[in-house]
Design a protein that fits this description.
single chain; about 180 residues; Rossmann fold; globular
Length: about 180
């Protein structure tokens, strides 16, 4: 583990909790947010994609927004968040369905056709990667846009997937 991973693990143990697959981080990551910690997490993840020629970072509303913004800021690119409700101002759009195991509900994610252009290279960002439902929906939206998904960067990877860049994995949290 690196310094940022050590800091995150210490913070989870101090201000959060780990109960099997449930990792409670709402006092510093996804309900109340420590912006300085988020900046350091974003810098670490950005360093892993520094040579990937990313055009935009993309996430889903709402818990992924903070890490997407920090990551995009360090990469020097805009970020997009897929909306869970389509506003009246969104004319043409891409859409895909996602199921949240945390909230036990299915939702449709919407992205305006104005913000993803064909051929663009996008990086997915989120706070957690569990079973990949949000990732799959974003993947479908990017495919509809005829753009490319370059990779995934998350704070905590709870899955066994090795192609997801993460600060911490569930295995590191439970050892």
């Amino acid at each position: 583990m690196n310094q940022v991973a050590d800091e995150l693990l210490a913070r989870i143990r101090r201000d959060g909790s780990i109960n099997g697959q449930i990792i409670k981080v709402d006092r510093f990551l996804n309900h109340m947010v420590d912006p300085m910690l988020m900046t350091r997490l974003g810098a670490e993840l950005a360093s892993r994609f520094a040579d990937s020629d990313i055009d935009k970072v993309i996430t889903a509303e709402s818990s992924g927004i903070m890490i997407a913004q920090a990551l995009a800021g360090h990469l020097g690119v805009p970020f997009i968040y897929a909306k869970k409700k389509r506003p009246l101002t969104m004319g043409d759009f891409f859409a895909a369905s996602s199921y949240s195991f945390t909230k036990q509900e299915s939702t449709t994610l919407y992205v305006s056709r104005e913000v993803i252009l064909p051929g663009e290279r996008l990086l997915f960002a989120d706070d957690f990667f569990a079973v990949g439902s949000t990732y799959k929906a974003i993947e479908q939206i990017i495919e509809q846009a005829e753009a490319s998904l370059i990779g995934a960067a998350v704070i905590i990877n709870k899955s066994q997937r090795r192609d997801i860049e993460a600060i911490l994995t569930l295995a590191e949290l439970t050892t």
